[in-house]
Amino acid sequence: MMNESRRSKAHFDWFLAALAVALAAFGVLSVSVATFSTSAETEDTLLNYIVASYYGLRQAIFFLISPIVIGFVTFFPHDFIRRRSQVFYLFACFLLMIALGGKAAGVKAWIDTVWGYTLQPSEFVKLACIITTAKYLEKTDNPLGTVKSTLRLALLMGIPWALTLLQGETGSVLVMIFTFAVMMYFGGIRLKVMGGIIAAGVLVLIILYGVIMASGIDDYRITRILSFVNPELVDANATYQVTQSKIAIGSGGLSGIGTFVQGSFSQLDYVPEDYTDFIYSTIGEAFGFWGSLSVLGAYLLMILRMGYLAFFTQERFGQMVILGVMGMMLFHVFQNVAMTIGLMPITGIPLPFLSYGGSNLVTNMAGIGLVLNMVMNRSVTSMKGLTPQTRVKGRYTG
């Protein structure tokens, strides 16, 4: 049996990197299936279909950049990441403020760059918040133990969350809140304190919901919630997207109808945004139940692998970063898949590695790079005498 010191040694985790690259490659195929053009005269080859798809080709370009992103972040100076977390935090907040000046589809969340490409700062701020929270937890085994520390952390997280919320990116804020909660739990927060925070948060949301409903504001976020709670309260157009998504997934059956099929829901654009937030409906239609299950299995392996790597990482900062990235991926996958099959409200959260978008793909690859960086720079010198429970909870002083 592999001893603890071997499982805890520094190394480049090829398994995790391979999973990320494989999912991203499958994402290029999925985006191409969702957006292929039947008007283009091409030979029936995968490469030609990708090239003939505008979004498929752009996603392929993002995919080719991915190994560079992973390599850059993986071999970025670990000490700089740990000691200069404020640099990433301030830069992310700066990008968020710039994005407030732009607007797309009612959401001020993108920065125009070159050649028609845009940058979505709310994706990158997720990693900045993870690094900042990890740095905070490195110095204490009792998060929110004092009023001063509570106010400090509330201010640190409140600024990027508020800026992201002002952009209309409610889904990204939910991701950051869940990630923060995961890191706090494993960082050693008392369950009574966490329960109180959750209760207070629910109360605030109920109050805000009541105020918005009483004011009669026509807000698309409220419409999404109402369409989920009771579809009869909203116009049929509000439930059209998720209804079409469920039909597309169901039409795939067990083995799917195949890729690049004329007359499919994907080809006829029956599912809005089926190449971005609703890419899972395209996968369900083309590859069926078994294909969809395989994708979920790959995500499960990735999340479990990160949990395993965190369990055997003794450095508190590195452990918290890994758990933060794990929490971010977990919420993205759960929320995205659940909303496409009608189990959760629509929030505009993309599916990691698979949904179209350069900012999303680069952020996820950078997240994997961060995990690999933490694993490559860990040591086992202070692992002795630590029980698995204290390592996972983060209640040790190493």
Task: Describe, in plain words, how this protein is organized in 3D.
The chain is mostly helical. It has one domain (4-393). It contains 16 helices and two strands. The protein has helices at residues 4-7, 14-35, 46-52, 54-74, 78-83, 85-99, 121-138, 147-166, 170-187, 191-215, 220-229, 240-251, 279-311, 316-340, 358-376, 388-393; strands at 111-112, 118-119. The chain has a two-stranded antiparallel sheet with strand order 1-2. A hairpin with a 5-residue loop joins strand 1 and strand 2 (118-119). The chain is globular. The chain starts with a helix and ends in a 5-residue tail after the last helix. The model is unreliable at 380-398 (pLDDT under 50).
The ordered string of helix (H) and strand (E) elements is HHHHHHEEHHHHHHHHHH
Q: Strand-residue fraction?
A: under 5%
Task: Give the C-alpha Rg.
Answer: 22 Å
Largest sheet: 2 strands, antiparallel
Strand order of the largest sheet: 1-2
What's the total helix number? 16
Share of helix, binned: 55-70%
Distance separating the two termini: 26 Å
List keywords for this structure.
single chain, 398 residues, mainly alpha, two-stranded antiparallel ribbon, 16 helices
Question: How would you briefly describe this protein structure?
Answer:
With 398 residues, the chain is mainly alpha-helical. It contains 16 helices and 2 strands. It starts with a helix and ends in a 5-residue tail after the last helix.
